[in-house]
Amino acid sequence: MPPAPVQLAPDVWRFPTLGRSLINSFAFVDGDGTVALVDAGLKGAPKKLTAALSEIGKRPADVNRILLTHTHPDHCGGAAGLRQRTGAPLHVHQDDAGYLRNGRRPPLDPAFPIAKVLRFVGQGPRSPVDGTFLEDDIIPVAGGIRVLHTPGHSPGHCSFLHQRSGVLITGDALFNFRDKITYSFAPFCTNAELSRDTADRLGEVDYETAAFTHGTEIRGGARKAIRGFLLKRRQGRRG
Predict the structure, then answer these.
(1) Which residues contact 77 (CB under 8 A, 6 or more apart)?
(2) CB 111 within 8 A of CB 152
(3) Which of 117, 123, 96, 107 has its CA nearest to residue 190?
């Protein structure tokens, strides 16, 4: 049995899809009872997400939108299956949409040897894309989710800010394994330096809880913790 959903706020849940927090998706429950899901996990994740919905008293038919932080297989591998199970439209940033539609992986940073090894491995998850979003769009679910374009991990990588609950979803801009904030793994970024630069955006907006697609959440004072982590990098670059 998969781990139970974790409530982050009255209308926000974390759904673990691998381990207790190795890969996470998220659910936002609107006032009318509908649900927006963020990220679709690996290919087998839709079954786990359906079970998690049931745990919070929801059905696949209650899902009215699926949002993706980006189009790496651990976030969109279940996209086609989840879209089919729920009948909900799937949305992703404009700069990643083509990869998912065409079943291609975003390119890897050529500064790392693994990019050369995998440069001919272009196949990735494939799914129809029903809509796209851009920087600073407000997605009209659960009182509004603000899109923060944080490219570098992939061209269209995004974080999401739910201002009503004070919850920030970092996507893969930052991880939090074993209560240690880190940047995403550089060899699996399209542009590792850009990914680290754009993560600075996460210190500029207001929130109380940081929710990570990889790792456990930070409740209360999350912005301060993330700003402290980001400041150390900036100081290191100046030194």
Answers:
(1) 40, 41, 42, 43, 44, 45, 125
(2) no
(3) 107
- The pTM for the full model equals 0.95
Does residue 9 sit in helix, strand or coil? strand
204: exposed, middle or buried (C-beta count within 10 Å: 0-12, 13-18, 19+)? exposed
CA atoms within 13 A on the CB side of 83: 18
Residue-range domains of the chain with CATH: 6-238 (3.60.15.10)
What does the pLDDT read at residue 113? Answer: 80
In this structure, the strands spanning 158-162 and 167-169 are: antiparallel
SS3 call for 80:
helix
Q: Read off the amino acid at residue 171.
A: G
3-state secondary structure of 137: coil
Contact assessment for residue 38 and residue 169, using Cβ atoms and an 8 Å cutoff: yes
How many Cα atoms are found within 13 Å in the side-chain-facing hemisphere of 131?
Answer: 12
**Residue 30 pLDDT greater than 70, yes or no:** yes
Q: What is the mean pLDDT of the chain?
A: 94
Mean pLDDT along residues 43-47: 97
Q: Tally Cβ neighbours within 10 Å of residue 176.
A: 23
Whole-number Å distance between alpha carbons of 136 and 30: 20
